[in-house]
Design a protein that fits this description.
The chain is of the alpha/beta class. It is built from 19 helices and nine strands. β1 (13-15) and β2 form a beta hairpin. Residues 2-8 have low confidence and may be disordered.
Length: 397
């Protein structure tokens, strides 16, 4: 029933291009201290529910989005009747998204619906050309394919602008890039991102590209004359270095600092000490997987916190801290009471690992099927419409 997880004796590494856990998984308390962000507490989560008039998303209720920068400032402004906009993104390096890729978009859709605010989504096809062995043409093609999966999450076309860097960078956007670039020394960018003398110069020139969607003046067709509009960025915490840099530079070039709301990492099927990898399709569930593939992957690879025998499991129960099926249900099972009941019975040994995996397989299969149906409705014309440089007619409606 249980399977052995490799325990590497190593320090955790968390940056925009590499995430590797130390022994015992990612230490999020250490990350919060290291990065200098704040913990999301119950008071902020309750406040979001009160201001939006809807229950906080399960990612908030369960601490999956767990850290922030200046979120209270955004909520203060919103409470006074002022608006803000959302900014998130995707580095298009694979044909299809896996479920971990969907997490920030699922949460961003909730924020857009709850606060009724506009959203810009950056597809960093240039970044993937610089970091991966991809051609410009392939990077652009993957950006467009990934856009279809993003649109399938249900974003409001009247409040959403999706852009690829290769197609959009120029004009006011580029002006902001060079303003940021002039404020960041090479020593500073090495300190933040760990670039080495062997890295090509394209890498050190990229951070301003990801920084400037935080500034409304980068989008004159969306926010004309509204250069002080605040920005909220939902992202995984590995993206924090970009926005530490951005927040440092913003006041020096006359803009507001962006606020952030940051998530934990979505674990690989093999457990938190391993990384989801496109080179290992068995480490993740993809939105293109069949029901049979989902069933096989979960049954065969989802790391178990159960005991070695049924008898021992009935006696000792499961270790929920390492069980991947429980961790994934934490992300995707909507009903809090049902989740707590599963956890309780599994911990007490009343539920076996196989039974918990069956519950997860059902949840994932239904979710992936919903996504496939939605994506099948996304036409090339819809992608063009989301990516068109146009005013958003119902931006704050």
């Amino acid at each position: 029933m249980a399977s052995a997880a490799p325990e590497a004796e190593q320090e955790q590494v968390v940056n925009p291009w590499e995430v590797s856990a130390g022994k015992g998984g990612i230490d999020y308390d250490k990350l919060v201290d290291q990065f200098g962000c704040q913990r999301l507490d119950a008071a902020i989560i309750d406040r979001i529910g009160r201001l939006t008039g809807r229950a906080p998303h399960r990612f908030l209720r369960r601490g999956l989005f767990f850290a922030h920068r200046d979120l209270n400032e955004i909520l203060d402004l919103y409470e006074k009747g002022e608006k803000f906009y959302l900014y998130t993104g995707r580095g298009p390096s694979s044909e299809a998204l896996h479920l971990g890729h969907l997490v920030p978009f699922m949460f961003t859709k909730y924020l857009q619906d709850a606060f009724k605010v506009p959203l810009v989504i950056q597809l960093t096809d240039d970044e993937k050309f610089l970091w991966k062995n991809l051609t410009v043409e392939e990077s652009k093609r993957l950006a467009r394919e990934n856009a279809k999966d993003i649109i399938a999450c249900g974003f409001d076309i009247e409040r959403t602008f999706i852009f690829s860097d290769f197609n959009f960078v120029g004009g006011a956007f580029y002006e902001n890039m060079v303003k940021v670039a002039r404020c960041v020394t090479y020593n500073k960018v090495v300190g933040i991102f760990g670039f080495t003398p062997e890295d090509h110069i394209g890498k050190s020139s990229f951070p301003p590209v990801q920084a400037v969607p935080s500034f409304p003046s980068s989008f004159p067709h969306l926010f004309p004359g509204n250069d002080q509009l605040r920005c909220l960025i939902p992202c995984a915490i590995d993206q924090d270095p970009y926005f530490r840099m951005t927040r440092d530079v913003a006041p020096r070039i006359g803009y507001q600092k962006p606020s952030l709301i940051e998530s934990r990492f979505f674990p690989a099927l093999q457990g938190e000490n391993t990384k989801m990898s496109a080179s290992d399709p068995n480490s993740a569930i993809y939105v293109t997987d069949t029901n049979k593939e989902i069933k096989t992957k979960v049954n065969k690879y989802a790391f178990s916190g159960g005991q070695d025998s049924v008898e021992l499991h009935r006696k000792l129960g499961a270790n929920l801290e390492v069980d991947v099926s429980i961790k994934w249900l934490n992300f995707f099972l909507e009903d809090d009471d049902e989740l707590e009941n599963i956890k309780k019975e599994y911990k007490e040994g009343k539920l076996l690992t196989g039974e918990v995996k069956q519950i997860l397989i059902k949840v994932l299969s239904e979710m992936v099927e919903r996504h496939k149906r939605a994506r099948a409705q996304v036409t090339e014309e819809m992608v063009d419409a989301f990516m068109a440089r146009r005013p958003l007619p119902n931006m704050f409606g």
